[in-house]
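lol ok so funny story. i was supposed to be doing the assay writeup but got distracted and ended up predicting the structure for this chain instead. priorities right. anyway since i did it might as well share w the group, maybe its usefull for someone
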Amino acid sequence: MPLKPLLPIVATAFLLLLPALAPAAGENDGLIESISPLLAAHPGKSGAYVLEKGEEALLARAWLADHARKSIDIQYFIWSTDNIGILAAEALLRAGERGVKVRVLVDDLLIDAKPETILALALHPNIDIRIYNPKHKVGTSTAKRVTNLVTGFRSANQRMHDKTALFDGMVGITGGRNMADEYFDYDQRYTFRDRDMLVMGPVVADMEASFERFWKSGLAVPVEKLLSKDLKKMTPARISAVYADLHEYARKPENFAPEVREALANIPRKFDGLLQNMVWERVRFVSDIPGKNDGSKGLEGGGRTTTEIVNLLKGAKKRVTIQSPYLVIPKGGLPLFRELIKRGVEVRIITNSLASTDNLQAFSGYHKQRKEILKSGIRVFEFKPDPDIRRQLIERFPKLEKNPPTFAIHAKTMVIDGETLYVGTFNLDPRSTNLNTEVGVIVKNPKLAGEVEANIEREMSPGNSWDARDNPDGHAPFSKRQKLKMWKAMPLEPIL
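and the output, tada:
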């Protein structure tokens, strides 16, 4: 399996995934030994910790993957064959080799992996891989994909946007991050300001139940079935070669910079600090069912997560603070916000500007609505592609300062009255409302909600965002403004 060469600073971050590092005292403890005392000290409550920084979110996943003893269940919308994706796959392979049962469920639309790589991993006795709603990529020809779009437009557009990682049924992570470089601050050209929540305790059982629903759904198809022709070519020698390539790629010491070696040596202390700073509260996990809804309303229909979000909004008394990368307010949304504002609720939303957005199609929908949104009384802030906040969010920013990547919002977060917090996968757009399955966690805790709201408010400040009333489109390149005109001419709103 040919593998892309690593940039040294990127590969360094994955040293934590390597078996070559000798573990310090106590590092061999499994999750049960590390976490059971915390659970015992907070009976009936769930622990919650917000992962604001990409590097911290990566370290948490890596530590958990290396310390799981029984099971790892992974569910993602995007899994790329880039530095993050390759080395994450190698970490899961090592987990399987030490006896951990690994299950991976990935949506079909944006998966990026070679058939022999997927099959080799799936053929390991401890690893199972399934693809959700395979209408576009895995085992699908171009002709078949076109047919799927023509004969089943809604079905082809109904994607699994869920992002969950579960370890030994005890710890879970959910939020906006997919498995690719740009979600963990390791893309040299483009990176996302994102947010996850790490949880443990009773809420994890609900996350496991949701994963099981999707895993057992008829929409989740084993890769061996989808790639039956390629399966015939997978000899033991080819499988072994894929495993060897993955391990060799992960072990090369020349790819790792000394300063990151030093940082990785502090992982046990950092993760212990993370655990000690968790908030213990009643945490709810909300999720859609496979398929989102029964499809009887065409491209509409809502879902469980949509209902939860609407109910949170309806209960607001003082203020609503939202962070969403895409802002295409779905049907019924503006009347709801107008009603809130009428009764004295302050509504503030931060989204991407034309200069920062990675999705011109979605921005075109927002652009059509912007005047009406502002007229309703909603305060809107548009994120800059070069915000001051990069220095705080990217730990190694001084090394990137000469040629920094474009920054964009990808976090999906809502804070109600400074005390109720939602962190998940739900974008404020028709696609998340009606088509894509979504998940998230809700916790009522003024300390946690207040900290996140303060971070969002900081990103609304002039050093990080423009006020949408000032029409910041002129800060985007001319070519991007011209492309926006093309997308605005298309009737895409129901699928944005």
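The domain at 282-495 is CATH 3.30.870.10 (Endonuclease; Chain A). Confidence is low (pLDDT under 50) at residues 1-27, 254-261.
back to the writeup now i swear
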